[in-house]
């Protein structure tokens, strides 16, 4: 359960608020009554959920680079948050092959700078650092990774997120726990939902091709991932943060948020479902050579089910329906802030029914 009483009036500093997940989280937090300040670069895509849902109208937004420690320090300490969510990142695998140094600067050094500034915030009680399921050393195991498995990563992006996990652990043990600040890291699967226009991501690529009546070109149709609607992990972050805020020591560790096992599916399964929902659509195989990406990835979510009482709500087939409905609403020029808030309300209602 997500407690509106807890979140009402909480001051939340959110890095990466202009991104896909950050925009959804900004909407959810403000709907709960939180006071949100975002700090991030300009939206990474055009169009963007940040602009389409008019996020700047509901939060305090500052454009800045987390690598600029002086500017970040002024922004965060002036706001003096109760809670910090660190989402700002370079999030793309293929981009990391072309820009490895930038990827490490943002994801590793940027994380260190965020946590260093956080030490100066007198009201701060809880931090969640958002990394990725790809932070684990991937050996294509079928049983799923648990939170104590080794960090690693073949590509620069995955490796940088493994490094960010180590930075988080070091700041927890060396500094933050002594200050009474609880810090947890969260590792979500392949997050999908309406409002994602990023390059080199499956769902945005599919929808762009649908719009143009073109064949969807796929690199690796058998690549299997833990797909989940964006609201699934975000709900887990909110539940975790409340517990972390109230009991810093007990929940200050790593957590996996992923789908149920039946929703760990290959790319061609996703394509077959979505082409059925979009008339005259089809897909084909990209025969060009592509950089290495893991063929199989799954998270073990036993820990969050037992210790947080969190579990997935929406099945993958329904998630894909919601994405297509969202995208059609956008094409029809509907009020996308209202569409997003209605989707959050629906998800919350379904989550509460599941708990009952």
TrEMBL record:
Alphabetical list of InterPro entries matching this protein: CDP_4_6_deHydtase, NAD(P)-bd_dom, NAD(P)-bd_dom_sf
Domain of life: Bacteria
Occurrences of domain NAD(P)-binding (ranges): 14-319
NCBIfam families for the chain: CDP_4_6_dhtase
UniProt protein name: CDP-glucose 4,6-dehydratase
Species the sequence originates in: Bathymodiolus azoricus thioautotrophic gill symbiont
